[in-house]
């Protein structure tokens, strides 16, 4: 096993992914799949507009002073960019900009890659998840929710048509 393998942490993340996926399949997907495409995507983007929370990884006291500053900066700035892209997506969808769907694609691809990079960095560079301090809930609860919602957004984006249907 890798030196930074922490079974309770891994089980917390796995449990959050499983639960997020089940809740999305039972409750969220049935509701958003019947919504007009722009509305469904705007709702998902609104959830991601709160990704500025990742900036807290750069706050000593919220996380351990021993947490890698490189990791904290990548996570924090990556999440802030994702939050800005989510807000831009919401605006583009709300105001029916002709580039709305491409903007959402950029947000969704960036946001997904940013989260996967954060998990990779955390798994390979952080020796102890206890260094996350109060931020432990971000990778064990919030990130699984975000990744599942990115999957839902990809499912909506890949549906044929539906762009003109919106309330």
How much strand? under 5%
Q: Portion of residues in helices?
A: 55-70%
Question: Which stretches are poorly predicted, pLDDT < 50 over at least 5 residues?
Answer: none
Radius of gyration (CA) equals: 17 Å
- The average pLDDT value, as a whole number, equals 93
Oligomer: single chain
Net shape:
globular
For the record, the count of structural domains works out to 1
The topology string of helices and strands comes to: HHHHH
Structural class call reads: mainly alpha
Biggest beta sheet summary:
none
Number of separate helices: 5
| DSSP, total strands | 0
First-last Cα distance:
52 Å
Keywords: Membrane, Transmembrane, Transmembrane helix
Transmembrane segments: 6-29, 41-63, 75-93, 100-122, 134-158
Q: What do these coordinates show?
A:
Keywords: Membrane, Transmembrane, Transmembrane helix. The chain crosses the membrane at residues 6-29, 41-63, 75-93, 100-122, 134-158. This protein is an all-alpha fold. The chain is built from five helices and no strands. The longest helix is centred in the N-terminal third of the chain and has 26 residues, at 7-32. The chain is globular, with a radius of gyration of 17 Å.
């Amino acid at each position: 096993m890798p030196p930074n393998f922490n079974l309770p942490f891994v089980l917390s993340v796995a449990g959050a992914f499983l639960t997020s996926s089940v809740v999305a399949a039972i409750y969220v997907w049935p509701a958003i799949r019947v919504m007009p495409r722009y509305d469904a995507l705007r709702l998902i983007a609104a959830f991601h507009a709160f990704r500025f929370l990742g900036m807290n990884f750069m706050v000593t006291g919220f996380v351990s002073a021993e947490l890698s500053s490189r990791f904290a900066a990548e996570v924090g700035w990556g999440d802030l960019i994702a939050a800005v892209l989510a807000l831009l997506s919401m605006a583009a969808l709300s105001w029916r900009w002709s580039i709305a769907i491409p903007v959402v694609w950029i947000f969704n691809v960036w946001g997904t890659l940013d989260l996967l990079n954060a998990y990779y960095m955390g798994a390979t560079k952080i020796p102890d998840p206890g260094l996350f301090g109060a931020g432990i809930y971000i990778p064990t609860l919030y990130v699984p929710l975000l990744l599942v919602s990115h999957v839902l957004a990809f499912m909506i984006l890949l549906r044929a048509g539906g762009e003109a249907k919106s309330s």
